[in-house]
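Task card 7
Instruction: Convert sequence to structure tokens.
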Amino acid sequence: MHILEVLELTRWRVSGESGAAKVLGLKPTTLEARMKKLSIQRKA
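Output:
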């Protein structure tokens, strides 16, 4: 899953200059919505 790969690459940072949203070309809120829809959560 592409989103998971990018999240791991960015150490689960969603927003900001080095965040996954920026890498994927999405707004942070859009990425968060897709993560929720796909039930993607960081494992403890």
